[in-house]
């Protein structure tokens, strides 16, 4: 038993050594560049899937192993680690830092919930909409972490209001007067006894939720936040790291395409995200509160619980006070960044980048992100004062909207390194010829219907991303799927877009992605609850993606033809 305990303690070390040694015969026996690169690819894949090493540490292995095996020079590998993606990420994080620093995200969330009302059905839709909107611009993790305390306070108020109503009714039945509420006098003695018995059961068991319905409400709200923070990230290139990884990989592998930008991504992904969000809302409502067409009825009369809930949200919003100068400037820069992204090169008309005649292709979404991002370090937020020896308070400096230290605390350096490792791995696969070899081996799949290939790919990615991190999954699969598309002579976007979207469909387990873990940590959910709910949302997501790939996305990117910007397949074989 002691030996087994040592194995458990040092399991990660043993896995690292075991993987490296067991796979070593591959490059030793075959002795060609493809086999050597395949060895590196398998080792990195195992480390990413098992997290035997931190993801970002594993991402540094191409920088070590490619030069050692003679696949790429060290300076060439190093240049793969920093791309246009990183500049885009820096600009977006500047915006996110300012939004969270000045509490603009909380104001947006509370205002949107106040707009939809406090009926449980519409309240969940309000929270899902506001959470999805925030996750378009902020990280999914920070969005879920920010909204969950608000949800917790609102649901607690609903339960306490319901308990107060029940207590008031019991007081009325025992003969006490109630000056604040009008109770229906026609309630018979049998109903009163049932309420007493129900109250005694709840108090006797010490149930913190009071009733099963309240517990279901907690579960519903938690999952709504977890899932909507992920769904919202689908709609923009910057919404989640997987979108950014795909965009950079695609633009690097197919530089002549020039068809994928912020505007074109939003046009095809926004309708899909809206459909997934709406259908998920209905599914979760049915699963936890039951489905009834009457729930869509907008009733202007509010119950005591709804009024109490509305009061909580209103109080939270009032605590923020009037909109401050810093929030106004941040909101203005946020709108400017979004407008510049959309209008840079819309596709159907000439964008503002065309004004730079001769070098319009040099201006990318990262240029916009950096331009606006740098302004956050320049625009004053408040002045710094000091007291002179005479006692006079004078201004001697100013603080910008964000500082470098604040930016550093928000910047996901681990993701930046992970993505860089993925780019280096993809370059190594190209240099060694492994991508071409994989493409030739996958070419027989061309006999299958294209939609069947897309479905198989989507289901495979959705399954894998439940047990592996989303960035690692997409980074690992993009070179393989690109080679597959080229081998079967279909538009690479037809394979890569659904795979990228499905990488975000990690809804089944608490450990599948950070938003799931955050809501699970509040203690209202069981793993089985998330599995049941997540399975339905996964099915909805894959179905909507399949619908999108066969309808509105087809004319947008001309997916029915093999494009000229994609390389023609070569019949290279392994030497």
From TrEMBL:
Chain intervals for the UniProt region annotation (Disordered):
187-208
Annotated PROSITE patterns:
NA_SULFATE (PS01271)
Q: Name one GO molecular function term.
A: sodium:sulfate symporter activity
The subcellular localization recorded is: Membrane
**Ranges of compositional bias, category Basic and acidic residues:** 187-199
Naming one, the record's GO cellular component terms include: plasma membrane
Using the UniProt record, give the first listed, main subcellular location. membrane
Q: Organism's domain of life?
A: Eukaryota
Which keywords appear in this protein's UniProt record, sorted alphabetically? Ion transport, Membrane, Sodium, Sodium transport, Symport, Transmembrane, Transmembrane helix, Transport
- The reply on keyword Acyltransferase is no
Bilayer topology term: Multi-pass membrane protein
Q: Name one Pfam family in it.
A: Na_sulph_symp
Residue ranges spanning the membrane: these are 12-32, 38-69, 81-100, 120-138, 220-246, 266-289, 325-342, 362-379, 448-468, 488-512, 533-554
InterPro entries xrefs: Na/sul_symport_CS (IPR031312), SLC13A/DASS (IPR001898)
Q: Which family does it belong to?
A: Belongs to the SLC13A/DASS transporter (TC 2.A.47) family. NADC subfamily.
What protein name applies here? Solute carrier family 13 member 1
């Amino acid at each position: 038993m002691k030996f087994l305990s040592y194995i458990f303690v040092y399991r990660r070390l043993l896995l690292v050594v075991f993987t490296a040694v067991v796979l070593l015969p591959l490059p030793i026996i075959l002795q060609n560049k493809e086999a050597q690169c395949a060895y590196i690819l398998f080792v990195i894949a195992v480390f990413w899937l098992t997290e035997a090493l931190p993801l970002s540490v594993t991402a540094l292995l191409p920088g070590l192993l490619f030069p050692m095996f003679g696949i790429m020079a060290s300076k060439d590998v190093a240049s793969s680690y920093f791309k246009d993606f990183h500049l885009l990420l820096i600009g977006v994080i500047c915006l996110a830092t300012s939004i969270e620093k000045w509490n603009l995200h909380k104001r947006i969330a509370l205002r949107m919930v106040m707009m939809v009302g406090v009926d449980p059905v519409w309240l969940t839709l309000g929270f899902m909409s506001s959470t999805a909107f925030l996750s378009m611009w902020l990280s999914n993790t920070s969005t879920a972490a920010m909204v969950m305390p608000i949800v917790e306070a609102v649901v607690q108020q609903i339960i306490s209001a319901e308990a107060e109503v029940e207590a008031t009714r019991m007081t009325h039945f025992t003969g006490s007067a109630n000056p604040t509420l009008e109770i229906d006098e026609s309630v018979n003695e049998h109903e009163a006894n049932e309420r007493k018995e129900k109250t005694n059961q709840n108090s006797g068991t010490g149930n913190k939720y009071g009733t099963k319905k309240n517990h279901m409400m907690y579960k519903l709200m938690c999952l709504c936040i977890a899932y909507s923070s992920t769904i919202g990230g689908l709609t923009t290139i910057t919404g989640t790291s997987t979108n950014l990884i795909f965009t950079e990989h695609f633009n690097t592998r197919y530089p002549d395409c020039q068809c994928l930008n912020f505007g074109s991504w939003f046009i095809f992904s926004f309708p899909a995200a809206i459909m997934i969000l709406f259908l998920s809302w209905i599914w979760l409502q049915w699963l936890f509160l039951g489905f009834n067409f009457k729930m869509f009825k907008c009733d202007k009369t509010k119950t005591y619980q709804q009024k109490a809930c509305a009061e909580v949200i209103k109080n939270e919003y009032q605590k923020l006070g009037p909109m401050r100068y810093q929030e106004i400037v941040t909101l203005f820069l946020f709108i400017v960044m979004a407008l510049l992204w959309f209008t840079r090169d819309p596709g159907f008309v000439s964008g503002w980048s065309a004004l730079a005649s001769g070098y319009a292709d040099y201006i990318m979404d990262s240029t916009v992100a950096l331009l606006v991002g740098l302004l956050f370090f320049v625009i004053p937020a408040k002045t710094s004062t000091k007291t002179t020896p005479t006692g006079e308070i004078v201004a001697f400096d100013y603080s910008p909207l964000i500082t470098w230290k604040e930016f550093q605390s928000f910047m996901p350096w681990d993701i930046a390194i992970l993505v860089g490792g993925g780019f280096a791995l993809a370059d190594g696969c190209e240099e060694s010829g492994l991508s071409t070899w994989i493409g030739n081996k996958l070419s027989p799949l061309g006999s299958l219907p294209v939609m069947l290939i897309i479905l198989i790919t989507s289901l495979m990615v959705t399954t894998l991303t439940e047990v592996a991190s989303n960035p690692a999954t997409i980074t690992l699969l993009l070179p393989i799927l690109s080679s597959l598309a080229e081998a079967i002579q279909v538009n690479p976007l037809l394979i890569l877009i659904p795979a990228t979207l499905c990488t975000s469909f990690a809804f089944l387990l608490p450990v599948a992605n950070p938003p799931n873990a955050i809501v699970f940590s509040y203690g209202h959910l069981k793993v089985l609850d998330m599995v049941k709910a997540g399975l339905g949302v996964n099915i909805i997501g894959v179905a909507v993606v399949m619908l999108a790939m066969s309808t509105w996305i087809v004319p947008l990117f001309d997916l029915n033809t093999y494009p000229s910007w994609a390389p023609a397949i070569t019949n290279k074989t392994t030497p």
